[in-house]
Specification:
Helix content: 25-40%
Shape: globular
Strand order of the largest sheet: 9-8-7-10-11-12
Distance between the termini: 57 Å
Length: about 475
């Protein structure tokens, strides 16, 4: 059962990592009794990931019907209009409990429900006589609501079936709360005023901490034996970035893995603030970058935690740029660490540049760290890609807010257009000294809307254009 729960945990966390920003999710764990994991439906990835901590521990059985009934009740309370969906995963270890009356009542109600129920059942080899009974019950509920029922007859089938169930949930927007009528999509681009682009960008300096991976793997070469090492390309990109920073930027530099060899005592605490926050001194910052040598391991979560302590107090958004060629190697959870920083009251956004990542799992882990704070992930395959990704993170970030005020998309100034459904939005531009909002941004099908940023009276303002063909 432990392996089954591990697969389930990975599947659910994978779904949470890609859930759309306008989708709200609730989760119910059921063993001895149903346990709702969140106080309310949420689209906050960090909140969803936090709620999963401690879940997926084996119980003595399941109360499937009671859990489904609770899910239906919560959906009904939160979606008086529109369609919704719930997903149940039935672990089969132990006898299925739950009030028989509740099971019969739920099946009778299925044809009237506006909720699609998806289920996955694992055959219980300890109780073969109950397998068909449980599978039949789960299948009837799923089919009666227009959902899907999947059945694993061995543990080897579990991973693939969990992936199919997750893909099914991602592909079907029926579980989103609310109705949006749209004639199509348009595009939004947020840019500085063209004739004053350089001057406007200088007025939007970042408050940013750079975190560089100096673990031993950064000594690897991108190509053949005569090609440059990853660490050398990263240092070159950082030096060029320092030259591109606005004069009034407030920047710090933290490095992990440069002092203690992997496997030795203290390697997982080897993170150091080389340059604390202060007025930008390009020469001093580049000198510290040149002296970095790659040696140790990859304590990403611990470094992010320490970075949260580095920022000086004050208003505005804090930015962290993490450059890494791998994943967490010290047992930490970087995405959960970012979520904890935000819960502590720190308005922080983490952008991640993954450099020469080989495994898709490493890319997904890096992407999850960025998405936990609404940040961006860049997959850099070579030195030029690394430089481009790092330079893009220097531009101010913005959120696109829907009518409810919830973010539906995010990007960076000058980072290229976003595709949005028709409607009226607000652009929230996050600067080092506060948030600048641009309301009334209209998106029309097949047209481009631009928000041009300028400086007036010492402050940044934005004006949306009418949608252009």
């Amino acid at each position: 059962m432990k392996d089954v729960l591990g697969e389930l945990g990975r599947a659910v966390r994978g779904y949470v990592g890609v859930v759309a920003r306008d989708v709200r999710v609730q989760m119910i764990e059921f063993a001895e009794k149903p346990r709702t994991l969140l106080p309310a439906f949420s689209s906050d990835k960090s909140e969803l990931l936090e709620a999963l901590e401690g879940a997926f521990s084996a119980g003595m059985g399941s109360v499937l019907y009671d859990a489904l009934a609770e899910g239906v009740r919560l959906l009904a309370a939160n979606a008086a209009n529109g369609r919704s969906s719930s997903s149940a995963t039935e672990g089969a270890e132990g006898a299925e409990r739950g009030t028989p009356r509740s099971g019969r009542a739920l099946r009778r109600r299925c044809p009237r429900l506006r909720h699609r129920i998806r289920g996955l059942a694992l055959d219980d080899w300890n109780e073969p006589d109950r397998v068909e009974q449980r599978a039949d019950a789960a299948a009837r509920i799923a089919l009666a609501t227009g959902g899907r029922f999947l059945r694993a007859e061995s543990d080897e089938e579990l991973a693939e079936l969990y992936k199919r169930l997750t893909d099914d949930l991602r592909a079907d927007p029926a579980y989103s709360v609310g109705i949006r009528f749209s004639g199509g999509t348009g595009r939004l681009n947020v840019l500085p005023r063209e004739e004053r682009a350089a001057a406007v960008m200088q007025k939007m300096p970042p408050k940013m901490e750079l975190i560089l991976d100096a673990s031993g793997s950064m000594n690897r070469r991108i190509g053949g034996k005569d090609s440059p090492r990853r660490i050398d390309l990263a240092k070159k990109a950082l030096a060029e970035v320092v030259d591109s920073l606005p004069d009034s930027s407030v920047v710090a530099l933290r490095v992990f893995g440069r002092r203690i060899k992997e496997g030795r005592k203290g390697a997982c605490q080897d993170t150091e603030l080389l340059v604390p926050f202060g007025t930008l001194d390009r020469a001093a910052l580049k000198k510290r970058v040149r002296g970095i040598q790659a040696l140790g391991t990859t304590p990403i979560a611990y470094s992010l935690k320490k970075a949260g302590e580095d920022f000086p107090p004050g208003p505005g958004e804090r930015r962290i740029l993490l450059i890494t060629d791998g994943k967490e190697e010290c047992g930490g959870d970087p995405a959960a660490t970012v979520a904890e920083l935000r819960r502590s009251g720190l308005t922080v956004r983490v952008d991640v540049v993954g450099f020469a990542l080989v495994d898709e799992a490493d890319r997904e882990a890096s992407r999850g760290v960025a998405e936990a704070s609404g940040g961006l992930f860049f997959d850099a395959r070579d030195g030029e890609g690394l430089k481009e990704g790092v330079l893009r993170t220097l531009s101010p970030a913005f959120d696109v807010l829907g009518e409810s005020g919830e973010p539906v998309a995010h990007g960076v100034v000058g980072g290229g257009p976003l595709d949005l459904s028709e409607g009226t939005y607000t652009v929230a531009l996050h600067l080092a000294d506060g948030v600048v909002t641009v309301p009334g941004v209209r998106i029309e099908h097949g047209r481009m809307t631009e928000v041009r940023l300028d400086e007036e009276g010492g402050r940044i303002v934005g004006r949306p254009s009418l949608p252009a063909k």
